[in-house]
Amino acid sequence: MKYNAELFNSAFSNELANYLNEKELLGQQTKSLFFQLRDFDNMCRQLNISENILTKEIVKSWLKRKANESLNNLSKRASIIRCFGKYMYRFNTKNYILPSKLYSVKEKHYPHIYTKDEIKKLFDIIDNIKATSSKDYKPDAMPVIYRLLLFTGMRINEILSLKIKDINYNENILIVKDAKNHKDRLIIISEKLCNKLKEYNDKHNNFADKDEYFFRNSFNRKVTTDSFYEHFRKYLWQANIHHTGHGPRVHDFRHTFTVNCIHKWLIEGKDLKVFLPYLQIYLGHGTVGATYYYYNMTLGIYPYLENKSTDINDIIPVLEEEIDKDE
Length: 327
Prior knowledge:
With 327 residues, the protein is mainly α. The protein has helices at residues 13-25, 31-46, 56-62, 71-89, 116-126, 138-152, 156-160, 191-204, 225-238, 252-268, 272-283, 288-301, 321-324, and strands at 167-168, 173-176, 185-188. It has two domains: 5-89; 109-327, Intergrase catalytic core (hpI Integrase, Chain A). 26% of the residues are buried.
């Protein structure tokens, strides 16, 4: 791909385009880097930066930690701006290079796998949310969103970014567009979950444009991840599930889905050498190695399990009965 300055809007437009083109010439993948640098470009434009000199103050502004941002992600952003600083320094020594030891902390996180008891207690709260106004979206939206989290392993931003047109009710398929690693993928869901989405759509989206977000807040705007996380913490507290600075997190529903899926396949004797690549595609992992990580996690929780060869039917785990039988 050839990058040009018109893709950017700040004083660094030319430099950002040239930097990406240099990376391309070196044979490096630049798609993900482009989106990060475009965020940096937007920040510089909002700060009205008028000179194409990368100062320490600009770098510090870029590295302000975002709400709910992990230290690992912050470290990645630091690496990006450090490399860009080295590039800029080649042309003007006034440009600032972030020292390599700063923001290089690696955060160790141990996923929380929700127990059946925790899931039941949490859904007892979520399925009985009381409306605070006639426009309150949460009583109808939250039960559907949390089932998508638990029964599909989707990332919360993928769910909140769904458009009305992204759901195929005839095929029981969700279309996830421009997700992590900037890839599109299809999510096959159960008929029961698809019916819940259709019920919500018929009630809230009948007169909305197909390009509108499927889940919208009381102001008819996209529900933000920050807002969702704020309510999530409240629901945990009401369900008497202890929350620390390390979780449980919303993203742990994805971990729980994946471990439960692999556990089910191991119990059924399915050949994971065949099934894990399917799961990789379903989850949108960049490599199968990321999916094998969950295999090791599952064996750590259930060390007595062994995988056995079998066919490749039924790649979607049927877990919903664990919740819905108690409704």
